[in-house]
Amino acid sequence: MKPDRQLILRELGLGPVWKLRAPAAALDEKGAATTGSDSVPQTEAAPPMALQSSAPPAAMSWDELAGTVAACRKCRLCEARKQAVLGVGDRNADWLFVGEGPGAEEDARGEPFVGQAGKLLDNMLAAIGLKRGEDVYIANAVKCRPPENRTPAPDEAATCRPYLERQIELIRPKLIVALGRPAAQTLLQTEIKTAAARGKLHDYHGIPLIVTYHPAYLLRTLLDKAKAWEDLCFMRRTMRQRKDA
Ligand code: URA
Ligand code: SF4
Q1: For 46-70, how does the pLDDT look when each residue is reduced to its tens digit (9 = 90+)?
Q2: Ligand 1 nearest atom to the CA of residue 180, by list position
Q3: What's 196-221 look like in SS3?
């Protein structure tokens, strides 16, 4: 990790609370962890092509979904991807975090949020007692990397959405956290602004949904530290209420 990132994390107040699990020396220049991978849960392995399904996503099993997404060419994002990135984690998780789309690291490794933003996401999870893969599933609004990490176009997000919808049906999480605007808009099917949408409980087909800032945005700005913290507390409170209900 470069020193300026360290500084930003410290400035964000992430030092004492959102501790980096890997020491800086274990990060290569792109921020990917080069050690400690034995504790990283397995990503969804693509099953044999035979498990691709011509059924609509709404009827697919996990294996069919994974096979179909791995082979999907329904939108132009298939052209430059190395691989589609379905998601990672506990398929029975109470918590579902949804990002925007894979970046370069994710495209190369086949797992969501493994780059710089992923480190921050892991720190945010740790701050509320959560850990990647343990009662947490992490997915993205689009499964293939948008070139130059641009925001997915609305038609791309719409084409890919049935896969995310099926994941949610299969996981049946108790709470969905939309990380940033594209994730929130894809799930809520309406235009939102993160600053206005955060701090409220939204509804995704009967499942409570909370919108917060995307970790990559938090890495770029020092302004929203306190708000991100508020959002984490709001998530934890909401989940407690859901579990007590
Ligand atoms: N940003 C995202 O939105 N998703 C990832 O998987 C990585 C970075
Ligand atoms: Fe298919 Fe989604 Fe990849 Fe587009 S982004 S090619 S719809 S898996």
Answers
A1: 555 558 888 899 999 999 999 999 9
A2: 3
A3: HHCCCCEEECCEEEEEECCHHHHHHC
Measured in angstroms, how far is the CA atom of residue 25 from the centroid of ligand 1? 23
Beta bridge partners of 179: 212
Quote the pTM value.
Answer: 0.83
Q: Which-ligand-closest: CA of 102?
A: 1
C-alpha 98, offset from chain centre:
4
Report CA(44)–ligand 2 centroid distance (Å). Answer: 16
Could you tell me how many residues make up the chain?
245
**What is the Cα–Cα distance from 30 to 202, expressed in whole angstroms?**
35
- pLDDT tens sequence across 59-99: 999 999 999 999 999 999 999 999 999 999 999 999 999 99
Could you say which of 3.40.640.10, 3.20.20.80, 3.50.50.60, 3.40.470.10 is the CATH number of the domain covering 39-244? 3.40.470.10
Q: Does 190 or 224 have the greater pLDDT score?
A: 190
